[in-house]
Design goal:
Blueprint lengths: L3 E7 L9 E10 L4 E11 L1 H17 L6 E4 L5 H14 L5 E4 L6 H13 L3 E3 L10 H11 L10 H14 L6 E2 L1
Parallel strand pairs: 1-4, 3-6, 4-5
Antiparallel strand pairs: 1-2, 2-3, 5-7
Helix pairs in contact: 1-2, 3-5
């Protein structure tokens, strides 16, 4: 219907030969909120993550899941990751709009800003959230339950992508910029 669907990706925090976690959420925008359709985090090297997300976008396309807008966190290696993934997709004649998050506060300030939209039901999680091989809703629930301002939680890769979506739609966050 008239839903605009998008996918957000959080790149790893460091570009090392060792693998790191990449979090992602697939979001449907509605007139009154957002719905999490898919979510997960995968542990991959930079190059393997490029292959993984290229295949993930292909998977969504084959299953008629629209991914017109791919948002990548503009932190650490995010800029390079976005450009590399865009180049791979363009070579395959795929033309998603790649955007980078704006520089906007720290993750705890963003989480505070996202609190009211989350609390008031503007963010829903689909019952069958786990389209691909991501960890899905169970991992997202764990991240919600363990997230804290002392930053002692084990993982927030999925939650961080969701918070970006919430503050972009409902908060004061500047809109992502095209690359």
């Amino acid at each position: 219907g008239d839903l605009l669907k998008k996918r957000a990706v959080t790149p790893p925090q460091k570009a090392e030969a060792e693998s790191d976690y990449f979090g992602f959420t697939l979001i449907q925008d509605t007139k009154t909120g957002i719905v999490v359709v898919d979510a997960g985090h995968v542990r991959k090297s930079y190059d393997d993550a490029l292959v993984y997300f290229d295949r993930l976008l292909d998977f969504y396309e084959r299953h008629k899941i629209d991914t017109r807008k791919v948002i990548i966190e503009d932190a650490n290696i995010g800029y390079a990751f976005a450009h590399s993934l865009k180049k791979i997709r363009r070579a395959k004649k795929k033309f998603e709009a790649f955007k980078l998050t704006a520089k906007y506060r720290n993750k705890f300030d963003r989480a505070h800003e996202a609190y009211m939209p989350l609390k008031t039901g503007k963010v829903l999680i689909a019952n069958n959230c786990r389209v691909q091989s991501g960890a899905g809703v169970d991992a997202l629930r764990v991240e919600f339950a363990t997230f804290n301002e002392e930053d002692s939680h084990k993982n927030d890769d999925i939650l961080d992508t969701l918070i970006w979506d919430v503050v972009e739609k409902f908060g004061e966050c500047p809109r992502p910029k095209s690359i």
